[in-house]
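Final report, Chapter 2: Outcomes

The project's central promise was a pipeline that accepts a single protein chain and returns its three-dimensional structure in a standardized token representation, suitable for archiving and comparison. That pipeline is now operational. To close this chapter, we reproduce one record exactly as it appears in the project archive, with the input sequence first and the structure output second.
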Amino acid sequence: MKFSEFAKMLYLYCSDGKTQSDFVVAIIGAISEDTDDDRPLLDFKPDYLKRIYNGKRAITQQNAASVLSRLDKAAFSQFVENRPDDAIEGLRSALAENGITVGKYEVGNACSDLFEEILKACASGNTSAQMETAEELSPALVKLRDLLAKLPHPKALTPPEDLTEEELPYVTELLAAYANAEGLVELTKDELETYQKYKKNFGRQRKDYYAAESVRRGTREAFGVSDPDQFETLKEETHDGIIEIHERDYAHGFDRLNAVMSQAAIVPISKCVLRETDWIGNSEKKGVCHFLVNDGRIKWVDDDE
């Protein structure tokens, strides 16, 4: 696992509202002993730290070695273990997706061990995460990134009060998931007033759908009908990143919905050029799942549930 992948996995459960750059500082600080010496990365500019978080810059061998020289794995384990139970369970699932199966009370140590391995790989230089000279070697890539960075952010869309025809497939699946969780044959949108938990969830899901829709429209405006279609590429990457989670067995469809959405938020985007913009956040990634539902590629309620 690369540092950026590790950081994104932790961010979902341990960020405490921090920015991506501040979170890099937080986790490096959490695994480093507090000494009077200079502490690596902690004084870098936010933009540089954000690029490290997103995998566009690597932690240098020198900085990784410096962190290893003052490693405090026990402190980092405690940093993780101080999270609420649902965050610990989320991290445990994320670790399992990466082939690391641990018990609830082993999550902190597992994250600490994994962080140490990543830092050792960075210090040795034997990792594909080392990207320090990539931009220097490819001026064309720098130019492309600069152009993408200047793309205006797509207009944010607010869910209309009334459902649109395009929304009906994913909305139908959401209502089926809620009904399935309650042991009901069906549940209508109007009946959500009786179930405040689902009403709030429904509002968030529509917000995510329209966040993704704003990206879809933005790609059309920026790229036209390109080949490959960048929003279709985003959908494909999202599908590949969530399908194993989707196909697991669940008590009901609402559990499947929540598990898939948690996974969607941490799916790395590597093939879609939108990764070079600030267009794609957690809400947009989750919203793409509703497009996959509309396409008939996934659904929340299994026929056997």
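Archive annotation: Residues 129-138 have pLDDT under 50 and may be disordered.
This record, like all others produced under the grant, will remain available to the consortium after the project formally closes.
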